[in-house]
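quick q for whoever's on today - can somebody do inverse folding on this one?? i tried earlier but teh output was garbage lol. tokens:
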């Protein structure tokens, strides 16, 4: 291989990580992608429900194209912070820069004291639930399993919580139809909707004797972020988006028969014989971004409680935390005060789990890396302009990390060869021979969707 000026480590190979790797590679930078799983698909595989089969396959292909580029080295089954220390990677390997694209894999905890004592005893978290749904059909699946029951309580309010209630309604409906000798595929039910399938078999919803699950949301229905309000939108445009949200939600409720209880938040646990059997809720008032608890409470019982209130990054030893999040001093670029060569992109920095947001953010951070930090842009003014933008955004205007964006010196040949050698050692340790396509074929089950 020809001698590149820089080599960058990317932690995480899914949407944001692959996009970052591809853009850096196309600019002439060598890239090493460390992926904690055998396959690099991240939340596309484990968070996007499997009824999105066309989109999932499209993203698998896009990720593969980026990670198959000749100057991209893929290193699977390698978790930074466990298999390789974060400080070791940043300080000792010699990379020009390190990009965190490791997503958000830990559920936000249900905000009730003692709630986690009932995991497996009535309490379920969203991430494990969707992983099960996506992989339960595979013959070699050995992960956590769930018995989907009617009348579940779901606490949430984002797109992910809509996925959860859809899974519940699709699976409980299919089970009741099966008792009548009617076999319907999950995909057919998801596409056509429950009322149409029932009508085709001469049935009504009440014939199934299902209560359906209920989604409890602390804001109004129109506040549910099913569609983003464009940045800088005036009130007329914002209200139009809110109306669109209400319409989308109403259609989803009609199509999948789940219920919504807005303007309430969890306030207490209902426990019987060591089992979580429901929640006490407190009514709220929502005004713009403000949610105010009231004095009114009510109780709801259900077959289980599924918490779907968002995901946060898994802690990595060596990275400072602020609450449940990494302690970034610049959230736009994911900069850490003590690590001037580290950037972050995708859900780990944006808190948004959707594909478009992750890809867009990766492109933005890549431009800064390419033009300002690595200094491989053809535009001589780009570096100084971007450096000034970062300085203005920084929570501390005199933070020394902004000065690091003035350019990274070219990498010495011996440093690059040392990195390549260590990469080969790690690849050998996980039985990866460098052939990305062959590896994906090897580690993908025949019944993988």
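ok took a stab at it. sequence:
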């Amino acid at each position: 291989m020809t001698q590149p000026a820089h080599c960058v480590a990317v932690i995480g190979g899914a949407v944001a990580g692959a996009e970052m790797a591809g853009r850096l590679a196309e600019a002439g930078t060598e890239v090493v992608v460390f992926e904690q799983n055998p396959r690099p698909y991240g939340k596309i595989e484990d968070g996007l429900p499997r009824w999105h089969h066309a989109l999932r396959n499209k993203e698998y292909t896009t990720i593969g194209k980026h990670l198959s580029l000749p100057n991209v080295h893929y290193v699977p089954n390698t978790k930074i912070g466990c298999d390789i220390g974060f400080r070791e990677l940043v300080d000792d390997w010699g990379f020009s820069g390190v990009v965190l694209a490791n997503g958000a894999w830990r559920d936000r905890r249900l905000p009730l004291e003692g709630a986690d004592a009932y995991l497996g005893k009535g309490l379920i978290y969203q991430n494990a639930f969707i992983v099960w749904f996506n992989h339960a059909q595979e013959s070699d699946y050995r992960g956590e399993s769930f018995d989907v029951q009617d009348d579940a309580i779901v606490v949430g309010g984002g797109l992910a919580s809509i996925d959860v209630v859809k899974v519940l309604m699709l699976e409980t409906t299919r089970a009741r139809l099966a008792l009548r000798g009617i076999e319907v595929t999950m995909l057919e039910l998801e596409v056509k909707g429950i009322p149409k399938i029932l009508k085709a078999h001469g049935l009504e919803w009440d014939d199934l004797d299902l209560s359906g699950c209920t989604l409890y949301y602390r804001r109004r229905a129109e506040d549910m972020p099913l569609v983003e309000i464009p940045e800088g939108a005036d009130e007329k445009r914002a209200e139009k988006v809110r109306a669109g949200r209400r319409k989308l939600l109403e259609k989803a409720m009609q199509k999948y028969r789940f219920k919504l209880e807005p303007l309430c938040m969890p306030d207490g646990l209902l426990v019987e014989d060591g089992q979580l059997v429901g929640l006490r809720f407190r009514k709220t008032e929502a005004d713009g971004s403000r949610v105010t608890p009231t004095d009114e409470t009510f109780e709801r019982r259900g077959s289980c409680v599924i918490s779907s209130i968002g995901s946060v990054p898994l802690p990595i030893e060596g990275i400072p935390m602020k609450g449940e999040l990494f302690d970034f001093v610049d959230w736009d670029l994911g900069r850490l005060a003590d690590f001037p060569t580290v950037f972050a992109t995708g859900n780990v920095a944006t808190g948004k789990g959707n594909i478009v947001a992750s890809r867009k953010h990766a492109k933005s951070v890549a431009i800064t890396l390419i033009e300002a930090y690595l200094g491989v842009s053809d535009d001589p003014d780009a570096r100084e302009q971007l450096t000034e933008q970062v300085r203005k955004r920084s929570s501390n205007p005199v933070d020394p990390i902004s000065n690091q964006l003035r350019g990274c010196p070219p990498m010495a040949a011996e440093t690059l060869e040392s990195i390549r050698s260590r990469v080969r050692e790690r690849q050998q340790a996980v039985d990866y021979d460098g052939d990305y396509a062959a590896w994906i074929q090897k580690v993908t089950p025949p019944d993988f969707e």
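fwiw Confidence is low (pLDDT under 50) at residues 393-405. also Residues 177 and 397 are 63 Å apart (CA to CA). so keep that in mind when u check it
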